[in-house]
Amino acid sequence: MKKLIDFPYTNVLVLGLAKSGTAAANVLLANGKKVRVNDRNAVKEDEIVINLEALGAEVVVGEHPLEVLDKIEIVVKNPGIPYDNPIIVEAERRNIPIITEIEIAYSLVEGPIIGITGSNGKTTTTTLITEMLAQSNQPVKVAGNIGIVAIEAAQSLEKEESLVLELSSFQLQGIVKFRPKIAVLLNIFEAHLDYHKTMDNYVKAKCNIFKQQTADDYLVYNADDPVIVEAVKEATSKLVPFSTRRKVENGAWIDNTSIYFKDEKVIDRNEVVLVGSHNIENILAAIAAAKLDGATNEGIRNVLITFTGVKHRLQYINTINGRLFYNDSKATNILATQKALAAFTQPTILLAGGLDRGNEFTDLLPYLSHVKAMVLFGQTKEKLSALGKQAGIKTIEIAQNVEEAAKKAYAISDENDVILLSPSCASWDQYRTFEERGDMFIQAVHRLV
């Protein structure tokens, strides 16, 4: 077990278990810390609880009593727990620092960290960077919001290995010293305001990714995003822009035929197999970050001529009787669905709906011109139905879930249609995660064969 570096606290509260909380508690206990764990949804009989108590943790379950903060020096918060949680509010009142597991992972890492954040495209870009480095024979591990807890990856990380981290705003709001060697800021638009309350809070959380960087570090940023262009004026790191609109100095850019890093051609555009104009931004960001960490043009090209996307993000599933099925379950907001729709020109049947966060969907209107039908589900089905009628879409059907939506879409489709699951909403009204929702869709598609 690696030892924590520069973590001067003895009495620690881990608030919320799940994967990150459990991993944090285990590391803290192994480093001799006095750990108290509080999880409202857990019970004493849970295997996780039993194991942590056997290791010496004090575990409080079933409620959030304010007494769990007594004698505590720092709180390690599960990223999903909002800052208006009573324990967090009281911790702030007592001036107790609040961090997320990412901060502890940073205390375990000796080598370079590449951190990626943005409202959209994080998983694709994170995966591209990791594969580009691996194909260039550079030692690398990937973790963070991509499914592998950062602390767990840090435990087995060799000193010469790079750690590529996908980072959410929830994770980044809880950092203090975290400093990636290379930070990547893809885009920022209105999202997660139910958590962050204001757009300003959301932007600040995202920009935490570069706040601790110095002139020895790099910030890869979207030079086409006005919010980001304004925000990076405060950065002290070396700025490395990427742009789909113009040539940029010291960064990644594109013209009608090729993709470049600085003045060097990396690959022809027609060799790239990943669909969607939005993915060009992800590719440029990935090239810039990977090149800064030692990737070769050959390694980058090997990835781009074969990489068709990550699971649940515009993932091609199958072609059945000429109908092309795509799973974009990770599209949990309007912008993601805009980009998914923009990736296609042929007639499309859109499957959408999910948790109602109070959003209106009128920003989708300009992207519905080639949508011939909609199959809708979840809490937002009526809102989206009204939108479809406003767009003049004649065929609008309601389904109970994505499984039924897949069947209904196939029944009303014609040869050469795209059948696209791109919900534009979170999944929590019907499914535990967007992954579960996407898996249900994939299974339903395979049953159509």
UniProtKB/TrEMBL annotation:
Gene3D superfamilies per UniProt: Mur ligase, C-terminal domain, Mur-like, catalytic domain, NAD(P)-binding Rossmann-like Domain
Major site of localization recorded for this protein: cytoplasm
Limits of the Mur ligase C-terminal domain: 312-425
Entry EC no(s): 6.3.2.9
All residue ranges annotated as the Mur ligase central domain in the record: 116-290
Keyword Cell wall biogenesis/degradation tagged: yes
Keywords from the UniProt entry: ATP-binding, Cell cycle, Cell division, Cell shape, Cell wall biogenesis/degradation, Cytoplasm, Ligase, Nucleotide-binding, Peptidoglycan synthesis
Location relative to the cell: Cytoplasm
Broad class of enzyme this protein falls into: ligase
Database matches in SUPFAM superfamilies: MurCD N-terminal domain, MurD-like peptide ligases, catalytic domain, MurD-like peptide ligases, peptide-binding domain
Gene Ontology BP terms: cell division; cell wall organization; peptidoglycan biosynthetic process; regulation of cell shape
Gene Ontology CC terms: cytoplasm
NCBIfam families, A to Z: murD (TIGR01087)
Function: Cell wall formation. Catalyzes the addition of glutamate to the nucleotide precursor UDP-N-acetylmuramoyl-L-alanine (UMA).
Assigned protein family: Belongs to the MurCDEF family.
UniProt-recorded name of the protein: UDP-N-acetylmuramoylalanine--D-glutamate ligase
